[in-house]
Amino acid sequence: MPSDSVDVAILGAGIAGCSLSYHLARRGVGPVLVFDPQTLAAGASGRAAGIVTEQLWNRWDVEVTRAAKAEYAELARRWDPSAYATNGFARWTRQAEAVAVLDRVVPQFRTWGVPIERLDADALSRRVPWGRFDDVRGAIWSPDDGVVAPSTMTEIYAKRAQADGVEYWMGDPFHALDRAGDGWSISGRGRTVRARRVVLAAGAWTKRLLTRLGLPAPLAPYRVQAALLRPPRPDPRLFPSVHDIDTDVYARPEANGRILAGDGTELNEIDPETFRPGGDESFVAHLAESFQTRFPGWADAELIRAWAGVVVSTPDRRALVGPVSAAPGLYLMTGFNGFGVMRAGGVAQRLADAMSVGEATAAATEPLAPVLPDRFAGGFAPFSPRPGFTLEGGSDPRF
Ligand SMILES: Cc1cc2nc3c(=O)[nH]c(=O)nc-3n(C[C@H](O)[C@H](O)[C@H](O)COP(=O)(O)OP(=O)(O)OC[C@H]3O[C@@H](n4cnc5c(N)ncnc54)[C@H](O)[C@@H]3O)c2cc1C
Questions:
Q1: Could you tell me whether strands 138-142 and 183-187 are parallel, antiparallel, or unpaired per DSSP bridges?
Q2: Cβ(206) to ligand 1 under 6 A?
Q3: Is ligand 1 within 6 A of the CB of residue 114?
Q4: 341: CA distance to ligand 1 center in Å?
Q5: Ligand 1 atom 18, closest CA
Q6: Which residue owns the Cα nearest ligand 1 atom 47?
Q7: What are the pLDDT tens digits along the chain (399 aa)?
Q8: Which of 11, 265, 341, 364 could disulfide-pair with 357, CB 3.0 to 4.6 Å?
């Protein structure tokens, strides 16, 4: 029986909202309601590539992603083996400046327990036999990295959460989110639900929700693209994920020997309500050109389809997760800078832990310290989206 009063309402049924609902239910927090005006994984989560790597910027990020990876592997084992696979991840560069970055980050990765190897061009060719790497000056290889099927994993989270009593309220147009006494009210077309706490996990749409509440929104939505291709001689064996640091083109294996490929960030803010969901000709041309030069074995791959999705960046390229002090009972789980699939499960564990103790005390939110939204409470300068798939931290990465 749908309830008109819940403890936690989560806005957004992408991988962020669904993984959080699963973890709250497992910790006995409830009732929990997930609201989305569309369907499961209708936003970025249903359009993502799903590369999962520990080649990240700091220990916190590595630990969160490692926890997500372990959870995806376990959930896939139990519920749908197509949802996760360990296939390894290779990255390379032909630029001396980027090799210097590899020299710096590889020892750092090792101190964080990230399994990582340096590869020369010959070793890289053995891992990636469809590529040509004679001009490559440096490469790295993470054997334990993997690929997740983002829609399938989102569905697994939602189904398990529903089995544990979470209500999914889907497909009803969003009308309002308002303060109601010391809680919140969420209204759709024909229903209003009161919630003691609300989590905004609405991806690129979170900016609009925060702005409507009159709160600072350190978020900039931007468009990223991907394509599905069929190589001339599909090989159904699982191949590694790859990323060319110089062109920013990446690829991962898809079912039946197909390839899912994409490139980086479009560095301007857009509106998730009006973005163009199809792939651009210039994007497909860039992929084709980079396949010609870097992946001769895939040069004649047939394009099955190309598409775009909207993700969301933050001024410091770190996520926004945890309570918003200016609005008691309001929490965020967003701002993944284009890489929320690989982090969602681990971040949801920490946020659910913090929410399960009741009030948002400093001790409860300490495990989320690097991503707490209050770091922008004092304001932030206007900013543009920055690339998220880099080896470097900082606000202006080159590689
Ligand atoms: C082409 C592409 C490739 C990518 N590749 C990778 C990758 O390899 N690895 C990786 O980790 N990440 C990748 N990403 C990024 C990843 O998809 C996102 O970071 C992640 O899916 C964000 O999940 P989310 O649940 O926060 O947001 P979303 O999946 O966007 O979900 C937000 C949800 O909020 C809903 N919503 C909107 N308005 C409201 C409202 N008013 N109330 C309630 N709900 C609302 C939307 O309908 C939507 O379902 C990629 C993304 C794209 C587009």
A1: unpaired
A2: no
A3: no
A4: 8
A5: 340
A6: 38
A7: 677 999 999 999 999 999 999 999 999 999 999 999 999 999 999 999 999 999 998 999 999 999 999 999 999 999 999 999 999 999 999 999 999 999 999 999 999 999 999 999 999 999 999 999 999 999 999 999 999 999 999 999 999 999 999 999 999 999 999 999 999 999 999 899 999 999 999 999 999 999 999 999 999 999 999 999 999 888 888 999 999 999 999 999 998 899 999 987 788 999 999 999 999 999 999 999 999 999 988 989 999 999 999 999 999 999 999 999 999 999 999 999 999 999 999 999 999 999 999 788 889 999 999 999 999 999 999 999 988 788 988 878 888
A8: 364
Cβ(177) – ligand 1 distance below 6 Å? no
Residue among 134, 123, 60 nearest 88 (CA): 123
Q: Where are the domains positioned within the chain? A: 5-46+151-218+315-376, 87-146+220-313
14 in ligand 1 pocket by Cβ < 6 Å? yes
Give whole-number Cα distances, 261 to 14, 91, 248, 291, 367, in Å: 21, 14, 11, 10, 34
- Going by alpha carbons, the residue nearest to atom 31 of ligand 1 is 14
What's the CATH code, domain 5-46+151-218+315-376?
3.50.50.60
The reply to whether ligand 1 has any atom less than 6 angstroms from the CB of 9 is no
Structure token pair of residue 281: 């000709």
Dihedral (CA of 13, 18, 24, 25) sign:
positive
Domain spanning 87-146+220-313, CATH class: alpha beta
